[in-house]
Write a structure and sequence with these properties.
Layout lengths: L7 H36 L7 H35 L13 H24 L1
Helix pairs in contact: 1-2, 1-3, 2-3
Length: about 120
């Protein structure tokens, strides 16, 4: 338990959770762009682009998307662990503690859906 009795601890934890959210979304977008760029090169008909290169862009892009899912879900677990250490004086009355975690959970679920979409369009 924390003995600080300062709500700034909670708000610092919330900022950290949202920073992980931004990181997760950025990695997801980057992975999607890498995967789709490989598809674009394959469609453009360049002879230099082999099927192997398309597989590499898919694997790297998909890895970034799955990494973003892991980060989104791990940040929820980490934030919940931190919330358990706070006492009631550090939490403002009526403050919704689960809002940031719900957003990260939705990002995680959307990342899983994106990963499934990319996988199905690759096959």
């Amino acid at each position: 338990m924390s003995d600080l009795k300062d709500p700034r601890v909670l708000f610092a934890a919330e900022r950290t959770l949202l920073a992980w959210n931004r990181t997760s979304v950025s990695l997801m977008v980057f992975g999607f762009a890498i995967e789709r760029f490989g598809l674009f090169l394959q469609i453009s008909g360049k002879e230099e682009v082999s099927l192997f290169q398309r597989h590499v862009s898919f694997i790297i892009g998909e890895s970034f998307v799955l990494l973003s899912v892991f980060i989104a879900l791990f940040s929820i677990w980490q934030h919940r662990r931190l919330l358990r250490t706070l006492n009631s004086a550090e939490i403002p009355p009526g403050y919704a503690l689960s809002a940031g975690m719900m957003v990260n959970g939705i990002i995680g679920v959307l990342g899983i859906a994106l990963s499934a979409y990319l996988g199905s369009s690759f096959l």
